Every structure is written in C-alpha cells, then in structure tokens.
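Hello forum,

I keep getting stuck at the same step: I have a sequence, I want structure tokens, and every attempt I make locally crashes halfway through. Rather than fight my setup again tonight, could one of you with a working pipeline run this one for me? It's a single chain of 138 residues.
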Amino acid sequence: MKPADRGAAARLPADFSKVLVVGKSSINRVVVSKIVERSGLKPISEPPETAEKALARQIPGAVILDGGPDDKDCDRLLSGIDALRRASGKALPCVILLSTRNGTPDSLGLSSVVDAVVAKPITPERLQPVIDRLVGRS
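Reply #2:
Ran it on my machine without issues. Output:
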C-alpha cells in the first residue's frame, strides 16, 4: 500500500459488518466466506495480489489471511495492515491467520499484527467462534 493510500484509508471508518478474506486458493476463500456469512457478516474475497487495493478502499472489521502451506502467502499485506492500525490508533482491523500449524501468534513467531491463529483444516467449529470473538470485541 502506498503512503498516500494508507493516509486515505486511515481516515475511513472501519466497517465492522465486513470481513476481508484473503488467500491464493479460491476454494478456501469460498469456504471461509460461507463461515463469515454464518456470523452475519459480509465477506469480501480477494487474492493476495488485489487485497491491498481492497484495504485502500475500505477498512473491514476483520481480515482473514490464508497463510498457505508455509504461512507466508499473505505476508506482504501485514505491513499495510500494521500501518492502518498505527494511523488509526486502534487494533483494527482484527487479523486472523489460517495456518498449517497450531498455536498462538507469539508461540508461532508471527507478526504482532496477527490477533489469532486458526489451524487448518478450516471448519465452522474452529473459525466461527474466533470471528465472533474478535469482531464482537471491536
């Protein structure tokens, strides 16, 4: 995200009814989007290549990143999300990482931008309570 885009995005209010779902696998994005809808939220599905532009247009209440096989598929978005958080002075948007590993963001050595980790396989029983908890606290 360019500095000018970050500044403009930071002035936008967060829309807590929307969740940005980012991942290379379109199948995983569809599965996650259906789980987001079950929480009464509106998913916005994007591949990593276009997700930065989506963040520049609007700030969702949460971002769900599919880390892929090595948890690095969406790393390039983390600096943009961190910049939004610093500019707004809030931990928004909330960030959930879908990972092949189980643990907490700290125990897995992940960026401080990641608020929660949900281990794959992706199921409603695992993901939906995390979405509800993080978006509900915002």
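The longest helix spans residues 75-88. If your local run keeps crashing, start a new thread with the error log.
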